[in-house]
Amino acid sequence: MKILVINAGSSSLKYQLFDMETETVLAKGLCERIGIDGHLKHTPLVEGKTVYDEDIALPTHAEAITAVIDKLVSPEHGVVSSMSEIDAVGHRVLHGLDKFSGSVLVNDDVMAAIQEAVPFGPLHNPANMTGIRACQKVMGDDVPQVAVFDTAFHQTMPAKAYMYAIPYEYYEKDSIRRYGFHGTSHRYVGGRVAEIMGVPEKDLKVISCHMGNGSSIAAIDGGKCVDTSMGFTPLVGLPMGTRCGDLDPAIMQFIMNKYDLSIDEMMNILNKKSGVLGISGVSSDFRDLDKGASEGNERCALALDMFHYWVAKVVGSYAAAMNGVDAIVFTAGVGENSIATRKAICEYFGYLGVDFDDEANKCRGKEQLISTPDSKVKVYVVPTNEELVIARDTRDIVSGK
Ligand code: ADP
Questions:
Q1: Cβ pair 243, 230 in contact under 8 A
Q2: What span, in angstroms and rounded, lies between the C-alpha atoms of 294 and 287?
Q3: pLDDT tens readout for residues 308-333
Q4: Nearest atom in ligand 1 to 284's CA
Q5: Pairing between β-strand 215-221 and β-strand 145-149 as defined by DSSP bridges
């Protein structure tokens, strides 16, 4: 079975084609500047086929999908002989409100539910729907489309974790609650660490730290998410690349009044100009911050200190929430690559019984135990693989599992 995994943004579209017999990626790529001019980079991962990396007119997402399929079947760059070899498509969808606790086959009702969630994910959900419609248009109704939601894994949170302490009617009438994001990544990492440890997921308490441009932490008890640091939107929890993380809401009123800012201007500051970029004034990229700090830039060092402190604080609160923790896992761009960040965070974990292994930690982008094998709480690096989860869910749904 071959499954195409699609992550559609407003002007971009990432894809991977999986062969599910071996769970390997046959080709991957990225369409950019859709609706502006267009660029496609297509990378086949089988021998004898070459990379395609060109400007190409991509007026709409449907044209982008057509271009992708064209490359997937091309003699020079392709990995399948015809479109009919693609059995199904799995789509990343940001927001499923509280309607979806798992992945689903797309039908009219599912599209209506994704549409209903647009006010909650105004940038992503419309783009995700455009990606689904483009595939339906180009590939026809016979090719099943599956929606995999970023919010689904967090639907097992108990009310005490997902409710905000504001008047209850806002929950009842307006669905204001914590939803959480990065669910597919947390789910993958939680499952994978159980496999690595050789312990059933149901017997493990795991804290998954997804640290990239956006960062979130999830408490996973017995394979189920019981709390997570992102909330109603991805703006809260940890300080991130450019997002502020947790904030006293009265600060908004104070700044808006003092500088005569609109709510949109204020939100733009909190989403795009805050986090480690706002603190350092240098960059949202942790590599730049590491460099700045090593050259004596105090604000870079402060931004990093704050990030480490927040991760440690949230991990501590989740260990308390679960009454213990067996494994802490680092994933995503920073978690998989930043040796210094992992070390600085783990320095807080002595009280948990973490025996950190400095040598083992000197790794990048691979699965690795970075505590000693005898450490009371194990610490791992596990590269995330959201696309594989989407491909597996799609396979299971279309094969009726
Ligand atoms: P996104 O949230 O966009 O998916 P990623 O998970 O790809 O983000 O993470 C991107 C971030 O990873 C970059 O902003 C950068 O800060 C960080 N990163 C990548 N490589 C390294 C590295 N070697 N050291 C420190 N940080 C790194």
A1: no
A2: 11
A3: 999 999 999 999 999 999 999 999 99
A4: 14
A5: unpaired
